[in-house]
User: What shape does this take?
Amino acid sequence: MRVWKTLAAACALAIGAGGVALAKDEAAPAVKPITQMSATELEKVRTAGAQILFWSDAQRAANFRAMEAQFPGTTAKHGTPRALPKGEPLAISDADVDAFMAAQNVAGLMVIQDGKVRLEKYGLGMKPDDRWTSFSVAKSFTSTLVGAAVKDGLIASIDDPVTKYVPELKGSGYDGVTVKQILTMTSGVKWNEDYTDPNSDVVKMLSVPVGPGEDPNTAYLKTLPREAEPGTKWVYKTGETNLIGVIVQRATGKTLTEYAQEKIVKPAGFEGDLFWMVDSAGQNVGGCCLSIRLADYARMGLFALEGGKGQVPEGWFAEAGKEQAPIGLPGFGYGYQWWTYPGGAWGGQGIFGQAILIVPQKNLVVAVVSNWPKASGADLRVPQLQFFQKLAMAAN
Assistant: This one.
């Protein structure tokens, strides 16, 4: 079955939107709570994102599986795990799988079809009960919590203005921008997401000092100019997913971790706990940096594929996983913090090679966690999506 076309061109725009110390649910290394940190320690938290982007390969290999040993965060406890029975192995050679994992520096790969595991393999010393950081795959979790808040009546509508929930953005480039336009990254606010540029917005938002009592997420965003009318131009902006996180936390009165435990982790049947980094104000970072097991990334894909187990409005994922904003390539687009592909496939992407792929036509989910040598690039994302296509073709 043909699932994708023009992979190389598409992936040129695709962004992730990451001795080894292992991080187990039961024995996570202790990091001080925000309230007990010194000014120096808080400074490290405030600039955490910028630090991560410029880690060495050795630092990434050690820390992607142990983010809770590096940064403060909060934990969502798992409930009753969803069983993932073994299915018939995919019709793909071990040599092909091994070559992909070696070329992409893959720590874990899982394919589930019809609720059964058809492929599961680990590398880089990772084990099934290790967690691995999500990077921008977290965006798909955060957008799902928006759906849950709508279902709960805590967000009246995604057509509400952002300033209804974040009034300090009044008078900024976000005047007149809706929650939906943030979800689809079409706010019209100017932004640069270049992970290699120390002067890009994605780096500066994490390193520019904020005043006393200021929200670290909104302090930078409110300084940005408008470059297009809301809803007319798609630009990938991690800062705005952080803003979605602020909206959810204010609307629900809960941290993202607390709400995710209730609305995702337990209903989806995660088998391990979820760790989510916090910013210098103690808020979970909506656009990045939760950590879960490989199998739980796959369970998240199943949760979305199956409609959300009643935790989001009916039809939410049908809208979230379809093109809401074009990204400049026919058949490829962006939904509610999910990437969309030709043929109806959709998924979450994170820098350094993290991904969840959902192929509804084959009732298929692919999850992969990796340590790419650089944050992003067509030379890495193209082969990843090409291999995903090969997996989908093998799932007959």
